[in-house]
């Protein structure tokens, strides 16, 4: 049995999720930390989702089912669950992903030990439609790294979010429904501005990638909205003289422009100027910031490999030779050869 006010509210919004729903719910109900309510919003499903949910609600008092009278979409549905949530902490979950058994225990322990943090994410294993492992993404970030990185990129997978139900000023946390996509990224950025966020090294989620994911079914639209979220943060944080160069970097990073030799120079110039703004100069920037800068620059320009990427890599080396060593270290970090750890 849960207490009157549980420690955690787990929020899930589902629509026609019958294929993987039971596995997702079982992974939540089987957690080592059991003091939670599990609020699931059925977004007017037409398959057997409603029957599956009713069965779980009948067997476990922690499961609370809400059903929309019409299909509202995932984020308005998530906001409906957030409005019903009683706990001071929220964990997000999707109907096709899987939690590792100790996910909530580890994330709540972190937030209990770090009261100035508003959001903590986790590392993950990518799985395919049938649950087969595709790759492991272990990308830990403390608050310094995550706060900086979030200006440019989404730092963590959404079903790994665990956050406080209220901002420091008491405002309830909700998703911005004015955006069609990338509302999870917008929320991560908003929480990073209002407090601190972090990403654990622990693999606590199995994240399913399949044709129904937004990132797979509508990549162009999602990239455009994510670019808009990043630009909102970049343009507010950095002074106007940096905007033109950083805008071109974001265009390449979010596939609004194809990477070309001509765009390497403004991207390098913009990112180096961003580090100078944040830390005084490239040379004064901490090692982690140099590694991350080299990493996001390379991800933007070298995706896909091939002869064009080789030509772009040569131009990047000529334009920014000081980034070669940080990029090599970042490459080794991402492959687990060296431990990812920010400089003290």
From TrEMBL:
> InterPro entries in the record, alphabetically?
Glyco_trans_2-like, Glycosyltransf_2, Nucleotide-diphossugar_trans
Keywords from the UniProt entry: Glycosyltransferase, Transferase
User: EC number(s) per UniProt?
Assistant: 2.4.-.-
Which organism does this record belong to?
Qipengyuania polymorpha
Of which family is this protein a member? Answer: Belongs to the glycosyltransferase 2 family.
What lineage does the source organism belong to? Bacteria, Pseudomonadati, Pseudomonadota, Alphaproteobacteria, Sphingomonadales
Q: State the protein's name.
A: Glycosyltransferase
Q: Give any GO molecular function from the UniProt entry.
A: glycosyltransferase activity
* Keyword field contains Transferase: yes
Domain (Glycosyltransferase 2-like): residue spans on this chain: 9-153
Signal peptide stretch? none
Gene3D superfamilies per the record?
Answer: Spore Coat Polysaccharide Biosynthesis Protein SpsA, Chain A
């Amino acid at each position: 049995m849960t207490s009157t006010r549980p420690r955690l509210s787990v929020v899930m919004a589902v629509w026609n999720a019958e294929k993987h729903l039971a596995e997702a719910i079982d992974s939540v109900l089987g957690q080592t930390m059991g003091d939670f309510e599990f609020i699931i919003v059925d977004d007017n499903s037409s398959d057997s989702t409603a029957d599956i949910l009713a069965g779980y609600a009948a067997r476990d008092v922690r499961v609370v089912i809400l059903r929309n009278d019409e299909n509202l979409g995932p984020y308005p549905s998530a906001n409906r669950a957030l409005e019903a949530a009683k706990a001071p902490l929220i964990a997000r979950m999707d109907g096709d992903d899987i939690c590792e058994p100790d996910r909530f225990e580890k994330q709540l322990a972190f937030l209990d030990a770090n009261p100035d943090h508003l959001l903590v994410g986790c590392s993950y294993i990518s799985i395919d439609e049938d649950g087969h492992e595709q790759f492991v993404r272990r990308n830990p970030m403390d608050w310094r790294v995550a706060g900086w990185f979030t200006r440019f990129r989404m730092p963590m997978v959404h079903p790994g979010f665990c956050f406080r139900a209220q901002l420091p000023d008491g405002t309830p946390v909700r998703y911005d429904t004015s955006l069609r996509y990338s509302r999870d990224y917008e929320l991560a950025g908003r929480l990073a501005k209002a407090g601190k966020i972090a990403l654990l090294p622990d693999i606590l989620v199995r994240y399913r990638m399949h044709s129904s994911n937004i990132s797979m079914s509508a990549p162009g639209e999602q990239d455009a909205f994510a670019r808009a979220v990043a630009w909102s943060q970049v343009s507010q944080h950095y002074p106007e003289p940096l905007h033109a160069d950083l805008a071109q970097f974001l265009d390449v990073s979010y596939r609004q422009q194809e990477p070309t030799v001509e765009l390497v120079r403004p991207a390098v110039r913009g990112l180096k100027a961003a580090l100078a703004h944040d830390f005084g100069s490239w040379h004064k920037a901490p090692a982690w910031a140099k590694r991350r800068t080299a990493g996001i620059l390379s991800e933007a320009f070298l995706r896909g490999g091939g002869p064009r990427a080789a030509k772009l890599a040569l131009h990047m080396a000529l334009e920014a030779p000081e980034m070669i060593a940080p990029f090599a270290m970042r490459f080794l970090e991402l492959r687990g050869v060296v431990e990812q750890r920010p400089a003290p």
